[in-house]
Specification:
Layout: H1 7-20, H2 37-43, E1 46-59, E2 71-86, E3 94-101, E4 115-123, E5 126-129, E6 136-137, H3 153-166, H4 170-181, H5 188-196, H6 203-214, H7 219-230, H8 234-241
Parallel strand pairs: 3-5
Antiparallel strand pairs: 1-2, 1-4, 2-3, 4-5, 4-6
């Protein structure tokens, strides 16, 4: 395939790669780029960066197990917050939610990693996830700096940029870029910094950065993305993995 062929198809493949790079591809969850950070923020009572530890699993009340059936389990986790962008969280608060065994969809937060939690209060010392799929946002791998006054959604955007700079793992950068992709709008300073990651040596990081820039549909960004692709080895890498239909 010549580099000048099928530019439109290349853009389609670019979008597909953003989805296909999702860690949860094998499970029947919504596509990785379908969550909307602003909407999640609005419906949550608390939004925090934190780490979790599973403390108990119990059969859900009033759910009698049937031999061979999927078990419904009530899970409780402790969590420690590094920063809260909305709401108040106490030291005694816990998160309680329901899982299935064997799992239909993996919704449990990973232990020991600072992730993003969107929470809904259900009692004086309990929360549950504000969204069935995205209440625990596993994409985020956050590096939290010094305390700030009145952190909010804008501070989350800044923390994601810090995390991109300080966590060099490709999978962490892809995940954090996907979280930025979920914002309704980004600051121009954020977009300028993300543009630098389109030249990352890891193809999936570059693809995720392109996806953030392309999302608003600005002609200048679309043109710049296509031009950059045409000059880079990323085109050849994508073409080798996802050949154009015209080559079949």
């Amino acid at each position: 395939m010549r580099l000048s062929e099928d530019v439109n198809w290349m853009i389609i493949r670019l979008s597909l790669m953003t989805v296909l790079s999702a860690p949860a591809l094998a499970t029947p969850t919504p596509s990785a780029d379908s969550y909307k950070i602003d909407s999640l923020f609005a419906v949550s009572d608390a939004v925090c960066a934190g780490t979790v530890r599973i403390t108990s699993d119990q059969p859900a009340p009033d759910r009698s197990p049937i031999p061979g059936a999927i078990l419904v389990i009530s899970r409780e986790v402790q969590f420690t917050t590094s920063r809260c962008y909305k709401g108040a969280v106490g030291a005694s608060d816990r998160i309680r939610y329901t899982i299935h065994s064997p799992a239909i969809v993996e919704i449990s937060p990973p232990e020991g990693r600072t992730i993003l939690l969107f929470l809904k209060r259900t009692g004086s010392d309990t929360f549950t996830f504000a969204d069935e799929f995205w209440g625990c946002l596993r994409d985020a791998s956050l590096v939290i700096g010094d305390p700030v006054n009145n952190p909010d959604l804008g501070q989350l955007e800044k923390d994601l940029l810090v995390s991109l700079r300080e966590d060099y793992r490709p999978e962490a950068r892809v995940g954090n870029l996907r979280v930025l992709h979920g914002f309704a709008a980004l600051q121009e300073t954020t977009r300028a910094e993300v543009r630098g990651y389109t030249k990352d040596i890891h193809p999936l990081v570059a693809v995720a950065a392109f996806a953030v820039l392309i999302k608003p549909g600005r002609p200048s960004d679309l043109t710049r993305s296509v031009d950059t692709l045409a000059r880079s080895t990323l085109v050849l890498w994508l073409a080798s993995r996802y050949p154009s239909p015209s080559t079949h």
